[in-house]
Structure formats: structure tokens, C-alpha cells
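seq:
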Amino acid sequence: MKQKELAKWLKIIIFFCWIFGLLFCVYVAPETGKNILLDSYPLNELYKPFIAFIWITGLPYFYALCIGWRICSDINIGNDFTVKNARRLKRVSVLAMTEGVLYLIALLYVFISGHYNTNLLMVLLLILFFAVVISVFTSLLSYLMGKASKIKQDNELTI
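struct:
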């Protein structure tokens, strides 16, 4: 796959991730919260904090998608292995770990308050797992991108 085609497909994927994330924050999470939290008397007081939490955790997600869009723009013009992209990937790693910490705090709150539901725990643990995996792999890609950038610079200087 050529770089312009790759950048185009990645931007399409990022666009759909943006749409799905927006739908999740605006419709799916509030409806799921109504079904899980408002139907259960001990959990119904958590509905508004749950919605605020979803919107707060959406911020790093959408910011990471914007960073991904910028990386795709650099790939499109041939600036794929750069220090700037390595720093961007590192920023995505930090954002993913921020998501993980936020969901860990939510998980601890649910356990401490004693208002836990099996469905809620499964969702929190799943999101926490994915946040950690994304953080680890983007950190690894950041490191490799930085090394590749250095090799590219050395090759440009020797030619």
C-alpha cells in the first residue's frame, strides 16, 4: 500500500472512530447508564457523575484522534519517520495511560462505594485493559519511530 493510500485509509478510520466516539458519548453511554444505573435504586445517584465521567474521559480520546490525524497528514506528504511523530505517539501513549488511570479511579470508587454491578465492572475492566495495551504499544512505537528518525537523518547526511 502506498503512503498516500495508507494515509487516506487511516484518516477514514480515524473519522469513523471520531463518529463512533461521539455517538458513544452522546447516546450509547447515557442510554446504557439509564438501563444500568437508573433501574437500580442504590446506583441511581451515580447517573449524573457517570455521564460527566464519560464526557471527561472522552477528551483524551478525541485529542488522541486529532494527533493521529496529524500523523496521517505527515505520512501523506512523506514525513512519516520524524522526531515530531515520535513525540506525538508518546503523547498518545500518555493520553491512553490517562484514560487508564481515570478508569482505575472509577473502578476503585465503585468497589469502595459497594455499588458495583457485574456489567459495570466488566466494562470498566475492559476499557482499563485496552487503555493500558494502547499506552504500551504507542510508547513502543514512539521509541521505534524516534530510532527510525535518527537512522533516516544519518542516512540523509551520508548521501
